[in-house]
Amino acid sequence: MDDPQLQATLELLQQATQHLQYLLQNSVSKDNNREIINEIETQLTQALIRLKTTVNPANLDHIPPEILKQVETLGIPLESLDIQMALSNHHLSQIIGIITEINNKSEQIRNRKDYFLARLPQIPIEKLGPRVPIVTGADFLPDYQPLPPDKKEELKVKYNINKLIQKRQQSRSSLSERIKQAELFISQQTKHERK
Question: For burial by CB atoms within 10 Å, which of 35, 80, 145, 162 has the most?
Answer without folding.
Answer: 80
